[in-house]
Design brief:
This protein is an alpha+beta fold and 651 residues long. The chain is built from 17 helices and 18 strands. The strands form 5 sheets. The protein has a 6-stranded antiparallel sheet with strand order 1-2-3-4-6-5, covered by helices on one side.
């Protein structure tokens, strides 16, 4: 039992929750077991500690932020996969203080940290990488849901990952969403008011990311911070011990920012190339080099689970690193990974051949799983879900993928728009890029195999009249457009297709490198000559006339016809090919990349976009010549669909 520091045991909160016991006290909160009088069910009451050094202004700000965060978490909990949040509020303690609380569902279970400790105590070998991926996938899925809703956790660790015992079986839960943000923002308010710091940190240093220790160098926290923590947890599972070990905050600060990253192989574990590459990208020092969010990490995990042979995790080149050379991508081995059957736990408890005898581990203790907002996904049935059907593995005849020799080039352009400045040197490793944009025919095969979803054929605009006009240019389901680029797809759909054909979306660094011809520094894919109707599909006379027919006043980019009022079949403009033979790098459709939109140069400490991904190349509706330069950048939300946006894949 914990210490009832708030004096709530025996009281009834807001006439609804009878407080029976104090279960435990942590750095952020005190947790009570209660009984909801109206629902006649046990609940957890989690009361946050308002730091004692907060002045009245900081306390008021803290409570306001808690209420705002609580509303958001309540909306999140309406999802069927999220633990129920019954109420939020404030209660007066025995000392006359106002403290915020959450009333949450009560469940029993075992922390991941306890589970791993118990295995070690029993002399069991660490879980395999396949078992680790199976175990952690529901949590990553849950984090991905939160990221899509604009919520970052910022304090992920094994003690916040719980296997709950429910009537449906073992359920994985992620605890304490939103708490770290509220605590840290409250600390920031206090610091602003008092000009002094308490040394408080709203995260666990052992699982901290570089930006949590040194924001002046690494920038703001966000979804990428959770990705780093998930990388540390994945590493800990397969290594059998925490990835960062120290005694005090400074030790973890040093480990978090050092150049040698704490990946499984760095810590002595024998893992496959793709698993090591996955962890290495999660644990990159610079947030821009990581998976941008849990959705991207989940796609990479699934690619490994599906046994994708040519899937790579090439470290994206960070534009701001003017002279840094990144290692070549690690290629997945030819042996496809498979998921073996397990017992009732997410991984089988096999004994280590050389395991030393250790003292008996702690027994699984009863936990209050309602001690934070938790996102649930059932582990039962997960293994079977991860094993692909034959049709899902059966990729179509791929678009030709042209090898591109890596090198150093000048990214961006001086004298251009601010988001293209400053120009800076970037080194790109060898990669390969599809010769053409992905076609409607190729995407249809993915849909028929069950690996892709049929697209919503609407151009994503809010005005119904405008949408109807744009819809005629969406190619899906339109006769005669099989060889046209697949457009009106969002970023997630493009990413899913590339994974199915054993590829990925290119980074924007790779895309610009291929377009500029590497060190040749071409202005456009074909060279420095201005765009014309022989080299690309842009908004020409046909486009202008078509636009006029639906009431739009578009000025064509050139006073000629390129032969297509909308998209053209891929590869229709061989005179516009790039140095290595790629077609349509300019025009036809904008192309999604894997890169979140981040500023260049001195603005690198500004947070990268949480929602916008970079698109390159311009499209058939583009009417400004500068759009078709290799340095030009655009950005769209991941869910954006448009008749002039498509994609090509890389490996």
């Amino acid at each position: 039992m914990g210490d009832d520091v708030f004096g709530l045991v025996g009281r009834t909160v807001d006439g609804k929750v009878r407080v029976d016991d104090c279960i435990g006290e942590g750095g952020f909160a005190v947790v009570y077991r209660g009984f909801h009088l109206a629902f006649e069910q046990p609940v957890a009451l989690k009361c946050l500690k308002v730091p004692s050094h907060f002045d009245s202004e900081a306390q008021a700000s803290f409570l306001t932020r808690f209420r705002e965060e609580g509303k958001m978490l309540f909306r999140l909990s309406q999802h069927a996969a999220v633990v129920r949040v019954f109420d939020i509020g404030e209660v007066e303690t025995s000392r006359g203080e106002q403290v915020p609380y959450l009333v949450l569902e009560w469940l029993d279970g075992e922390e991941l940290s306890d589970l791993l400790s118990r295995r070690n105590a029993q002399g069991l070998a660490p879980p395999s990488e396949k078992e680790a991926l199976t175990l952690l996938r529901p949590a990553v899925d849950a984090i991905a849901l939160a990221h899509r809703l604009g919520i970052a956790h910022r304090d992920l660790k094994p003690s916040n990952l719980i296997l709950a015992n429910t009537v449906q079986g073992s359920v994985l839960k992620v605890l304490d969403f939103g708490i770290a943000k509220v605590m840290q923002e409250g600390e920031t308010s206090a610091l602003r008011a008092t000009k002094t710091s308490s040394g408080f940190h709203a995260f666990s240093p052992q699982y901290g990311a570089p930006e949590q220790f040194l924001s002046s160098r690494f920038g703001a926290t966000g979804p990428w911070t959770d990705v780093h923590a998930l990388g540390l947890i994945l590493t800990e599972i397969v290594v059998g011990k925490p990835a960062m070990v120290g005694e005090e905050h400074g030790d973890f600060h040093e480990l978090a920012v050092r150049a040698l990253r704490p990946t499984p192989r760095t810590l002595g574990a024998q893992v496959s190339d793709p698993f090591e590459a996955l962890c290495r990208r999660c644990l990159a020092s610079d947030p821009a080099d990581r998976f941008p969010d849990a959705d991207a990490l989940l796609a990479a995990m699934d690619a490994i689970e599906l046994g994708v042979r040519d899937w790579t995790v090439s470290t994206p080149v960070t534009p701001e690193h003017a002279s840094e050379t990144f290692p070549s991508p690690l290629e997945i081995s030819d042996a496809a990974l498979t998921i073996e059957s397990t017992n009732h736990l997410p991984f089988a408890e096999t004994e280590a051949s050389d395991a030393k005898t250790t003292p008996e581990g702690r027994r699984s203790r009863r936990l209050i799983l309602g001690a934070g907002l938790a996102i649930l996904f059932a582990v039962a049935g997960l293994v079977g879900w991860l094993v692909p059907s034959r049709s899902q593995n059966q990729a179509p005849t791929e678009e030709p993928c042209i090898a591109v020799a890596g090198g150093t080039f000048r990214m961006g352009a001086e004298g251009a728009a601010p988001d293209q400045r400053p120009a800076h040197d970037v080194t790109v490793s060898d990669f390969a890029l599809d010769k053409t944009q992905v076609t409607v025919q190729a995407y249809r095969l993915c849909v028929e195999a069950g690996a892709c979803v049929a697209v919503d054929t609407s151009h994503l605009v809010s005005n119904a009249e405008e949408q109807a006009k744009w819809n005629t240019f969406c190619n899906w389901g339109k006769p005669g457009r099989d060889q046209h680029p697949m457009n009106c797809v969002d970023w997630h759909q493009a990413q899913a297709y590339c994974a199915w054909v054993h590829k990925r979306l290119p980074s924007e660094q790779e895309w610009e490198y291929a377009t500029k011809g590497g060190e040749e520094q071409r202005m456009h894919a074909w060279g420095d000559d201005k765009p014309d109707a022989d080299r690309l599909n842009a908004c020409d006379l046909d486009c202008g006339q078509q636009a006029a027919s639906v009431g739009w006043k578009w000025k064509p980019i050139y006073e000629r016809s390129d032969g297509w009022p909308g998209t053209s079949p891929v590869g229709s403009f061989p005179n516009g090919q790039g140095r290595w033979g790629h077609l349509d790098l300019a025009g036809n459709v904008w192309e999604w990349t894997s890169s979140p939109f981040c500023p260049y140069g001195d603005r690198r400490n500004e947070a990268c976009s949480k929602t916008n991904m970079v698109a390159r190349g311009g499209g058939w509706a583009s009417r400004y010549p500068g759009i078709f330069r290799g340095s030009f950048r655009s950005k769209y939300p991941r869910e954006y669909r448009a008749a002039d946006v498509g994609f090509r894949c890389a490996r």
